Every structure is written in structure tokens, then in C-alpha cells.
Amino acid sequence: MQSKPTLLVWLTCDAVHLDPATGKHTILGVFSNIKARSFPVVHPRMVWFLTLTDVQTGNHRLKILLSLDPTRPVELIQREFESQSPLHRINLINELHNLRFDQPGDYSILIEVDDEPILATSLTVGL
Predict the structure, then answer these.
(1) Into how many domains does the chain fold?
(2) What is the pLDDT of residues 2-16, one digit of tens each?
(3) 8, 20, 74, 109: which has the fewest C-beta neighbours closer than 10 Å?
(4) 116: in domain
(5) Percentages (nearest 5) of helix, strand, coil residues in the chain
(6) CB contact set of 24 (below 8 Å; sequence gap of 6+)
């Protein structure tokens, strides 16, 4: 029986620097909510950084969906990635530009690997 991928890290931040010499990730500006003076508001740039393990060897698909109404999620990210072994940790950097929020609230975030949910969380956007 195959195990479901395990999410070890989920961060919202300003940027991630990958050191080409060491392969280390430097996480910059971690945050958990967005404050705005008025709506709609456009957030210029953010990164959703995640680390997975227990991912079966082969090619896989990551999807990240966002919505103020959980019954109508919008797919923001869909990307392919490869696992060399279920024992490996896979770091995925997902950069978003000009993400628009029409009104304040708790926006639902759903993360899926191969159409299986692995995390449901939220991002608060407020005044």
C-alpha cells in the first residue's frame, strides 16, 4: 500500500533564496496574514514554500487552490514535480505575483498532490 505524501513545512513568505553552492534555502519575511487599507487589494509578490516527504518515486502534480468561499476554489498553482524516493524531502517554491483580494476575510487554501488533499488552511486578509 502506498502512503500519502506528508507535508513537513508550509510557509507564506516574501522570498526564498536558494544558495547554488550549498543547496540551502533562506526564507525571507515569513507572514501569516495580510493587512490592507482598502479593498480590493493586490499583493505584489509572495511565496508559498512547502516541503514534502513520503512521496512515491516518480512524477507528481501539485495544486494549490484559494477561495473566500470554500465551495468555489480557484486554482492558483498547478505544477509537476518529481520524487526520487519516498525517503527524500522535496522543497517546492511557489511564487505568486499580483494576487488580488476583493474583500477582507479568511481565504481558504487547499493543497493537493495528485488530486489528494494534504492540507487545508487559511490566510487572513483584513483591514
Answers:
(1) 1
(2) 678 999 999 999 999
(3) 20
(4) yes
(5) 0, 70, 30
(6) 18
At residue 50, the 3 state secondary structure works out as: strand
Q: Name beta bridge partners: 26.
A: 17
1 in a domain, yes or no? no
What are the cell numbers at 103? 474583500
32-40: average pLDDT: 95
pLDDT in tens, 63-115: 999 999 878 899 999 999 999 999 999 999 999 999 999 999 999 999 999 99
- pTM (two decimals): 0.91
DSSP-assigned letters across all residues of 93-124: EEEEEEEEESS-EEEEEEEEETTEEEEEEEEE
Beta 25-30 vs 6-18: how paired, if at all?
antiparallel
**Amino acid at position 66, single letter:** L
**78 lies in a domain?**
yes
Residue 111, CA distances (Å) to 2, 10, 95, 122 in order: 19, 10, 15, 11
